[in-house]
Amino acid sequence: MRPILLVLILLLVPAMSLAADTVKSLDDLDIAYDVLGEGDTAVVLIHCWSCDRTYWREQLDALAAKYLVVNIDLAGHGESSLGRNNYLMADFGSDVAAVVKKLDLKQVILVGHSMGGTVAVEAAAQLPGRVIGLIGIDTLQEPGFNYPAQAVEGFLAPMRADFKTRTGQFVASMFPEGADQALIDQVAGDMSDAPPEVAISAMYYLLTHDLKATLETLDVRIACLDSDKAPIDREGWAFYEPGYATMTMEGVGHFLLLEKPAEFNSNFLAMIKSLEKYAGVR
Prior knowledge:
Number of helices: 11
CATH superfamily: Alpha/Beta hydrolase fold, catalytic domain
Strand order of the largest sheet: 1-2-4-3-5-6-7-8
Radius of gyration: 18 Å
CATH topology: Rossmann fold
């Protein structure tokens, strides 16, 4: 390749590496990740259910200008390997922990969107002494689900019957009225194309996961940036002594990081800085 052409390609690729690095999970799967930027604080990004690390595309440039950014594909998602019989939240947490340990990161803020928030909690429990804060994006409005088995199965049954159709409907319902139709179609299409065996298993274990048991082992402050559509159980979080805080955005749905990226990024960076200050690291 001519040098000038290589330079042009590099200039046109926004804050993304040309190929993912990988690390082996505890069960010997390849976990893909990118590393961008630099800084003492590492911001580790964990995507939502049936998505992948490209869903942070609107945040990468802003983050990499100030921080070391690690962007991960969980097992069964994106460029990471499939192969688990069951996709448990603690195992996803170990995927994140494997990347953090390989890179030997000492000062970490874990960020999880939706299911990624639960995964971040599980990862924090496996990374004692390394995590200075945790950010949930439209997640962790309550400290754990408490759904009866009948309700969980009622939710999953239509996915088992026709995964693509039901998932497309479910994803579209998470956007507010008047949202960008092209974005709705893109996200619904991506998520309904996920491997059903991964998605249904992950959703089952998300909805039946005892998150509060893990939270009770942590000493990490949690901050959440949420849509104003979902109620927040502040009373339920009263038990969490390390601290729990929230900020909401109006006029957005579950994918606020893509719906209003400029506003989101401003709030997101402020939240990261607040966690650093609280932890006394900057």
